[in-house]
Amino acid sequence: MLPFKLVYSEKYFLPIGEHVFRADKYRLIRERLFLQGAVEDSDFLEPRPASESDLMLVHSPHYVNKLMEGSLTAREELQMEIPYSPQVVDTFMLHAGGSILAAECALADGVGVNIGGGFHHAFPDHGEGFCMIHDVAVAIRSLQKRKLIQRAMTVDCDVHQGNGTAAIFGHTGHNPTTLPSWSAPELGAPRAGVSVSQGPCKDVFTISLHQENNYPFVKPPSSIDVNLPDGCSDTEYLAWLDNALSSGLRQFEPDLICYVAGADPFREDQLGGLNLTLDGLTQRDELVFRAARARTIPVMVTLAGGYASKVEDTVTIHTNTILAAAEVFRAAHASPSP
Ligand SMILES: [Zn+2]
Fold first, then answer.
1. How many Å lie between the centroid of ligand 1 and the Cα of residue 129?
2. Percent of the chain scoring above 90 in pLDDT
3. pTM for the full model?
């Protein structure tokens, strides 16, 4: 039995046909967890779909109406890069409900994992990049509205920048600076091609580590953006993540961390150009979970992208994220009380 809950539904499968986005990955992750003997039925919770009013905490009424009525223009549907259907809308609403539930579980148990979600390219008034509804933002705004949290931090480790997240939690200005620990000895000299920018933040602090030379080509400013060069290695990636996390958590004390654990920084991803190994990705997960655990900040996890040439690799990476959380937080539960 896990020391936290996994939120999952068989209805997470997105009916989008033959697609680089393997929407069967959610089911395969659940199967893998059982195959490895890592979970039992009682570890799982079934989500309810987010409501239209939940969606409107983030998305414009005009956009939500278009989704409900099926009145997106051909251009808007193209930008989404997945076919529109009422069933697809229902599925995204279920993933958003799953993220709300996972965030509630995180507050109760220290961690909550949605085996879905992470649709970080959805904007208030449109969807893009396979993302229709920004489930993570909906979860944050829902918890804030119910006064369960005041401040949240997103830690986005998908290979693509969290442009929707940055736009939703918007920043009025962009004031590029280097991170305070830029010259930390473990990093050595910053490699040419890595740039870091930092903007002001309101009630949600957004961190994104991503490949600079990749979609989205216009990157609205996050609180911290780490623009990584093509082919970035495990060592370099982990050093930057450590740096960004420490810097963010020095400046901002969130009540909840929302970890967007994309599998696409993997070296064999079809839509990514970084060079992370399976082991490096597990170390990435552990780094995020340890940083949260050390400060007793609850963590909500969503899966986001993953387009490895072999779907088994994508499933392994996402499964490993859940196992890493179990490892880090089981150790926390087992610590002797003073
Ligand atoms: Zn991605």
1. 8
2. 84
3. 0.92
